[in-house]
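Entry:
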Amino acid sequence: MILLLLIGSVSIVSSYEYDTNGYVFFCLCMGRFGNQADHLLGSMSFAKQLNRTLIVSPFRTYKNVPFSEWFKFEELQKYHRVISAEDFMKFIAPKSWKENERIGFCWSYEPNKECNLKDGNPMENFWTELGVERFTRSVNFILSFYDYEQWRIQYPASKYPVLSFRGAPASYPVQKQDRINQKYLVWSNKIDEESQDLIKKYFDDEKFVGIHLRNGIDWLNACRDIEQYDTYMSSPQCLDGTNKKLNRNICFPSNDLILEKLEDVLVNKLNRTIRNVYIATDKNPMMKEIKSYFDKKNLNLNLVHHDPWLPVIDLAILTKSEFFIGNCVSSFTAFVVRDKILKSGSYEFWAFNK
């Protein structure tokens, strides 16, 4: 059925029909892009397993960024039924998710504790920017997001047409079985073209090695007591299937370990055939240290630290590298590694041998 909305003298035609199987809606609000990507991949599985349409949340920076600004929406449609949050609010919500019908879902052991989906930042701004002013009531739950059958039984679409969550209905880090969902995250033309233009500018379309250095003070603090954990943040990406343990070097490698790994890749694995290196980092790109080290090895490198305002530009470039080296614990690295695995690309981790 075609829905025709008249606004003034302008006609807006929508092909969306209300989905009686229900919807999944959530604030994609945890951390920066790497964490949000993990949550999106798990939420895709949650919606598909419940056979509900996934309302695709915008990414959250200092504002809401529609999914289609960074990725191709048509590729996501190949996975399952989806609708952008913006289109849902514009075409479906006015008739089928009215303000007095909006129920918020929060995970909590306390069934009578008030759940306010708009409490705090960025939750309040996230919902407000989408045009959601309030939720009429709330539901507290303790179900696992992977107990799909109980979700279907306890919260049927006939009674709860829209499952609106305070956070994503998924775990962090992303579960192993959900990592494959990344194949449906394909860069938008805008991001793809900008990243390709930069590769042309800096490397004249020649092959390059991409590296991710996570070395800011916040990361130093995060890695301080890492030995007490079996897994930590995105560490399953390198520890899965091994008997190795977390240590400080894996999380916050020294400059010496970084230089040694980069030499192993450039000299031993790539036989000095690639001299271009793209550096993405949250703090110190180590340009002087890397140049000095490899000058002594008679390897004159072309080092680039573009430092774009949008971190996803770094990610788009890194996914196009011939070889990638990243941080085992970082979700930013994890995004690139999943892409490399899907495309049978080459990658390694600092201070870690596969």
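The chain is about 35% helix and 15% strand.
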